[in-house]
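Limitations
The structure tokens in this dataset are predictions for the assembled complex, not deposited experimental models. Users should treat interface geometry with appropriate caution, especially where small molecules or nucleic acid strands are included. An illustrative entry is reproduced here so readers can see what is and is not provided.
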Amino acid sequence: MLYRRRTIDLPHGKLNTPVFFPVRNIGKRSSDNTPSYVGSIPDLPVAMINTRAIRNRTPMWDRLLNGVTLREEMGVPEDTIVFADSGGFDFSSGEVDTTPKKTLEAQRQLDADIYGTVDVPLSREKRAAENQRRVNQSIEYALEASDQHSGEALLFASVHGYDPETVRNCIAHLEKFGDFDGYALGSMVPIRSDYKKVTKLILSARTATDKHLHVYGLGGLVYQPLLLYLGVDSFDSSAFIRGAGNRNYLIPGFGGEELQDIEQLERLPCPCPVCGTRTLDDIREDRSALVQHNLWALATELRRFQYVAESGRNIEDYLDLRFQGNEVTSRAYQTAKQQVRRLT
Amino acid sequence: MSSNFNITDQQRDYSKYGLSGNPFPYSPVPAENPEIFCGQSHVSEKISSTVSTVLSTGKSKHLVVTGKYGNGKSHTLKYTRSLLRDHDDVIVGYVAQPGEGFLDIYHEFVYDLGFSHLQNLSYEYLASITRECTDESPEGAAEMRSLIDEGDVLLPEIIPEAIRELSDITKFADFARAIVHMIYEDTNLYAWQWLTAEGIRYEQRKEMEIHSALDDDTMGVRAFTALKNMLLDLGYTAVFVFVDEFESIARLSPKYEQATLNSVRHLMDQNSSGLCLLFGCAPEVWQDVMSEYHAFSERIGQEVTLKPLTSDHLYNLIHDYLALERLSAEEETDLRPFTEESLNVILQRSQGNVRQILALCSRLLDDAVDADYDVISTEVVEEAF
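Predicted assembly:
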């Protein structure tokens, strides 16, 4: 079992890992409409933001240049820990419109605790040669960022690859020729339904480095226990917002449930501060409440795993139970288990 | 319990004859790496000449070894293979029989090379690209693998170039992609299956961006030529293909027999350098090929025939086998417990057929130990028949 707990020192405080970074939509079309959770969910004093989106939203960027802090803009305490990725996901289909230097400057201006290097995500449909070019480009950007980085915050190199050799090789290369505090594995979202592939890629990254390992975009209920089992230190997701938009109610241990499928129930099964005292109809009508509940669900999933680990229970037994209901995820977990057992 | 059986793991004691064991095979089939090649100097000279010409000039040359069943064709081919395997600059593959057509010959050849060997060739090719494109200068497969593992060389930097250059060299982009995919743990088994012409599903090909199926003789010839061209580019002198039991093409329908011979002919035509084909074939089938398929037989041109053993050959053969188990070096030229007379009877009865001789000698030696004979005399041999 590769699950591990660590504490990392960051400019805005200490962070206990493993940790989930909720993706904030600040800078995007409707600006930051993420309901408050920092403080009310004590496990999540953190946020993942998109540097490019904020940098490109001129009025907001002007305010930030004129003395308003990012945390004020988001309405969160100043000690909130912020991971600023480059916004590379937006480059999946478009051209890269930044440089490592520009992105680093913006990340500094945002006073982020963790910087993710500029990256060009892979596409499943793209030709292999094109994806090789993109992997190469991301590595060059990361090394350039390493040269420019002055160490005021942690720098995570963004790494891509659809095969274990490339992932291992890229991390080894970055480790040799750059200076990074951790690595962030990207391009997992387009292949997220291929659980076996994703777990193999994560494991190849985990075995390639002992440094902090973040996985971009996979923090949902189903993936979370797998990531923890594979020794991932942090992960992020916006599924709690997107899910709520589709009236999708996350239930730890079960996954998502569409509220339209539930008619007669007066109260939902979750005792979180959002759901504990409200009726199903209240939740159904309040999107913010649903987003907050979904975050509680994700935090609960993480707490549950930590409880199993800390109480000395057998995590593999827990995961056998956790994945028994779904053949696809169960197969992926069994594959991951075989690989992990060879490593421990 | 029945007492008819007496099963024991107790070994026979051959020390009475100055031997530590029975050196003759109980089942006289050719060993994978034979240690002994006895007699038939006209055969060894012809093979040596053919192989040496290919090694020294790099030009292609082919030979057919004929001989009746049991006269040592397979043994001769395997012995030659074991000698060639000592050369670092050649690739040698043994095909036990030609199967249903050229695709089967190609399949068996690649299979005989083996997964690891082919994977190492893939790393060797990447090493050559790395030397061209980077400051690193890996010498071989192991060093290349280490450079990748250690991150000294970036895969996405060299892989596209490797595919491009290998496509140019082989004129077969799918082959180039399959070779490169031999280094990826997710796809190397698919790549291996494609390269061995075993056939893979469309989705598996798609994952490697391979568009064609390697499923007929024409594609087999193309893939073989691509492989040979890659090897020559890597600095190998030649590729040796040993096709045994070539007579089995006679059981194919005339259409398939013709197609197989045509494919081999195309292979020879497309590879005027760096290729040596060595066939083992029963003489009667080779006579038919000679008379009916000139285009094929003329390209081979050379034939050498394994004949039944003479008494001198036989004495040498028995010496060499007994020497394998001799307890004392002084006795190594001895024929004991056989006598020249008894060996002459063996030769007569077996009509000089090596397979029969070895089987008989093996049995006689065990019988002699069991019966506690001092020597294997002509009477003992007569009794055995």
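Some entries come with short summary sentences. For this one: Residues 35 and 295 of chain A are 10 Å apart (CA to CA).
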